[in-house]
Amino acid sequence: MRPLLTLLLLCALPLAAHVRQEGLRTAKQLEQRGGAVCVLVRDLETDSLLVDWRSRQDFCPASLTKIPTTAAFLALRGADYRFRMPLLLDGVQQGETFQGRLIVQASGDPSLGSHYVPERTRLLQQLDGLLRQRGIRHFTGGIQLQLRDLPEPAYGVHWLEEDLDSYYGAPVSGCNIGDNYADLYLSSDSEGAAADYDLASVSLPSSSGLELSSRTSVSSQISPAGDSVYLSGQIRPGLMRRYQRMPLSSPAHYAALWLSEGLQQRGISFGEAPRLDYDRQTAGDTLGVYESLPADTLIRITNFRSANVYAEALAYHLNSPEERPEGLPKGVLRYWTDRLKLDRRSLDLRDGSGLSRSGRLQPQALEQILRCVWQDSTLRQPFLYSLPRAGYEGSVRSLTLRPEITAQVKSGSLRGVRGYAGYLEHEGRWYSIVYIANGIGAEAARQGFIQTANELFYPPVPAATKHEAGKHPASAKAAAKKSRSSSAKATKGKAAKAKSTKATSSKASRKGKGKR
């Protein structure tokens, strides 16, 4: 009975009383395999820290980096902020011909032509409609994409070489297009190879110097004239429209070609190839303004999809023009270190997305950011909305917690890194949680988080208690019989007292099993 009574008392205590013991049990077991695990849990109603394990140790955060990035963007720009791209005419109209050029002023919008938004050709549709209203169907010049104050950042300075050839390692730009990767379809037979190059639902003109080989490795670049894509590399024989995501080496150049080709497919011709201008910002005749989705939707895509280009674009936008070529998230770091008075070492990030393996943070800094967002009435709801619900949505849909627990968390993963951070709700009470495992297998770390989150509110039944509770009532009768035999010489009054004790014990046992 004693182990069962201990469990009943433990369950009756408030969360803070058992959380330190049970919430850390799994973390300590994982650390026996090598590596390190941090766990921080805060009761947001009382603002009390319930679990604090390795909070000031440096950890690689992986995509948990997106939390300070998206929260800073939301705080500095607001939930309703939209990237605005002015569309201008520079020249003179003569009938359906415009003697001049079409100017598009880039904004850094990460969602232009994105795979994560409906109507990927919305900008082209808007431009086509505006030009039809003006009666313009031909330009003697071309499209000029202006990128003043939006320099190209250094390419993958803090990312591993192995990631730079992958779609998730595509560089950010002052003009992003289609998440900065193209959809490539490769075909080959014994006679040669062919490729279809599709960017944000527009088939771009391309030529190729592809060769048959035992392996497939393809690269692309804009032609010197700026009017097509040149593909080179090797393709193995026997491919039937094999799909491949190809990162764009210079997204702005591809965006300019995408604009030109997309409008030409809609019947608007140009006399010159598109070009980029990083120096000027022309004050021409305003044709219209293209606006992105609102900021709360952009950060939701960032966190739900763990979209690196989105996160990098948001961090890039918060930098000053002078800081942008470096690629470091200086605007994000500046905001949080100033607002929370953080030690710079506690938030030492190298990018906005977490793809860098050299970025570090102390879990207590991430927990402070989560608490700050929760306490700010302008940030709480849009940021909470941006985090997917574990077991149901986004990158955490495979996490299965007890149904009584609601978890809205961001996940982060790299080789040897797995983490989850965000908010838990249980019985109407909200908690912040930070869990990061470095140097531990991915599945073990994932299961560790599930177990840790569950045990915060539902401590496991001790083995001894399970044994006691599993005994058959016959066992109790046998024990009672033995007791009566050993006390046969007792007085009649003592025997009656023993019988009364037995009945009370049986009643308590039944009562205890009903609450287990």
Q: Could you describe the 3D structure shown?
A:
With 516 residues, the protein is α+β, with helices and mostly antiparallel strands. The chain has helices at residues 2-12, 15-23, 25-31, 66-77, 122-134, 251-264, 295-305, 308-318, 330-340, 363-375, 380-386, 442-457, 463-469, 473-486, 492-515, and strands at residues 36-43, 48-53, 84-94, 97-105, 138-139, 143-146, 181-189, 192-199, 202-203, 206-212, 217-222, 229-235, 242-247, 269-270, 275-277, 285-291, 347-348, 360-361, 405-414, 417-426, 429-438. Strands 3, 4, 5, 6, 14, 15 and 16 form a 7-stranded mixed beta sheet that branches. A 5-stranded antiparallel beta sheet has the order 2-1-21-20-19, with helices on both faces. A 4-stranded antiparallel beta sheet has the order 9-8-7-13, with helices on one face. Strand 1 and strand 2 form a beta hairpin. Helix 3 (25-31) packs antiparallel against helix 12 (442-457). The longest helix is centred in the C-terminal third of the chain and has 24 residues, at 492-515. The protein is globular and about 80 Å long. It starts with a helix and ends with a helix. The model is unreliable at 1-14 and 465-516 (pLDDT under 50).
